[in-house]
Specification:
The chain has 445 residues and is α/β, with parallel strands linked by helices. Helices cover 41% and strands 12% of the residues. This is Aminotransferase class V domain-containing protein.
């Protein structure tokens, strides 16, 4: 595909303003349930954060595109694919308040986006632009796959990686900012330069909304070369505004909280000479045409997930307030359900309501005796297989001198398809385990 993406949005009209919906045109509760009727009705699915959810109307639109490709692949490739991906990028550009569509590329997922940014960092070490021992900063609670990517691209290239030690449970943004500043101080010791900061917008496990705008500002003040925000959960879950956040690179999945099918994410790259030279890790025919075009063709594969973004936006706009309304209602319900569970179990939340989005950490009863990461996986499987509850669990190791503290936290999500009964099912399952004297050491390895 020849590249004319520099002029990509010159011939595309701005998205029309979302029409005000009358009460009769708003999506109804029964229509919501119909859109997600493919979900297993026997499972309380309170884990939207892991894989997201896709409504039936978007799935049908995807299937139409898949069949169009299979019917006449050459026509689809030459006449439809590029234009369709550009439409999706234009929708994303406006959703995230990017300045230009050229700043937006579509990739498989946030893990791929991290590899793209960190690959560039590795090249800088290899080509002598960075010196051995220069520093990359990341949060201790960075996503596991991103940590591996940092190891593969930064550590192996000769960079030094410093982790920000994050508190949990956490009570204020100031606690996070304090630890971030301490890590920057360590990074600058002995005259070292901090080349990259990798900052989560919403950490995965444990989940907390990070004061990303404030941390980006601190990075600018402290001379950090570039900032990459891993916001896998962000779009559709919390506020995403590129001009307000001010990062150099920012990625978020659209299949987690924006109702797209797996897998699709965007990678924003700020228009700046320092943000050029990004390439897809799969080198194909479009290498050198710019990341957006490279990503739009990495060989024969199913691109339908990248093409249905406008259809997902149509679905979102059936709700009162559109995406803003969904985010607020999901947040409020996540807090309400979290508080209900914590009260029922005599525990606590992992953060105050203002530090969560559509997910929140809820302490599990200490009597369950969760004592390792292995215990969390076994308990999660036990809840899935014996109670029909799907929820991830986090192990929080006790600190020195702590006795009888909560060591297990459940990460509950709330999405539009969830009901109150999903959470009472979880509540009652845990209460049953407690009443029976269950502990995690009763589970087989």
């Amino acid at each position: 595909m020849a590249s004319n993406h520099r002029n990509g949005d010159s011939h595309i009209h701005h998205l029309p303003k979302k029409p005000k919906l009358s009460s009769t045109s708003l999506i109804t509760p029964s229509e919501i349930q119909s859109e997600f009727c493919h979900h297993d009705p026997s499972v309380a699915r309170i884990n939207n954060g892991s894989f997201g959810s896709c409504p039936d109307s978007v799935i049908k639109a995807q299937q139409v595109l898949q069949l169009e490709f299979l019917r006449q692949p050459d026509h689809f490739y030459f006449n439809c694919l590029k234009e369709g991906i550009l439409r999706s990028r234009t929708v994303i550009k406006q959703l995230i308040n990017a300045r230009h569509v050229d700043e937006v590329s579509i990739v498989d997922n946030a893990t791929t986006a991290a590899a793209i940014v960190l690959q560039r960092t590795a090249w800088a070490f290899a080509e002598g632009r960075f010196e051995k021992g220069d520093v990359a900063i990341m949060l201790h609670y960075a996503y596991g796959a991103v940590k591996k990517s940092v190891e593969a691209y930064v550590t192996r290239a000769g960079g030094c990686v410093i982790e920000v030690q994050m508190p949990f449970p956490v009570n204020t943004n100031d606690e996070i900012i304090h630890e971030f500043r301490k890590a920057l101080e360590r990074g600058k010791e002995n005259g070292r330069k901090i080349r990259l900061a990798v900052i989560d917008h919403i950490t995965s496990m444990p989940c907390v909304v990070i004061p990303v705008k404030e941390l980006v500002k601190i990075c600018r003040e402290e001379g950090v070369d570039q900032v990459f925000v891993d916001a896998a959960h962000a779009i559709g879950c919390t506020d995403v505004d590129m001009q307000d956040i001010g990062a150099d690179f920012y990625t978020s999945n659209l299949h987690k909280w924006f109702f797209c099918p797996p897998s699709i994410a965007f990678l924003y790259s700020r228009s700046s000479p320092k943000c050029l030279d990004l390439h897809h890790p799969v080198v194909s025919h479009e290498y050198g045409s710019g990341l957006a075009v490279e990503s739009a063709w990495i060989g024969t594969r199913d691109y339908s997930a990248q093409l249905v973004v406008p259809k997902a936006l149509d679905f979102v706009n059936r709700f009162e307030g559109g995406i803003e309304g969904i985010k607020k209602r999901n947040h409020d319900k996540a807090v309400e359900m979290g508080q209900m569970l914590a009260k029922a179990w005599g525990t606590n939340l992992g953060c105050p309501p203002e530090m969560c989005a559509s997910m929140i950490m809820v302490g599990l009863p200490a009597s369950l005796a969760i004592s390792s990461d292995s215990d969390t996986l076994k308990l999660r499987a036990h809840l899935r297989e014996n109670f029909g509850v799907e929820v991830p669990i986090y192990y929080r190791a006790p600190k020195d001198g702590e006795v009888g503290v909560i060591t297990g936290y459940a990460r509950i999500s709330y999405q539009v398809y969830n009901t109150f009964e999903d959470y009472t099912k979880f509540r009652d399952a845990v209460n049953k385990l407690v009443s029976e004297g269950f502990t995690c050491n009763l589970l087989s390895n």
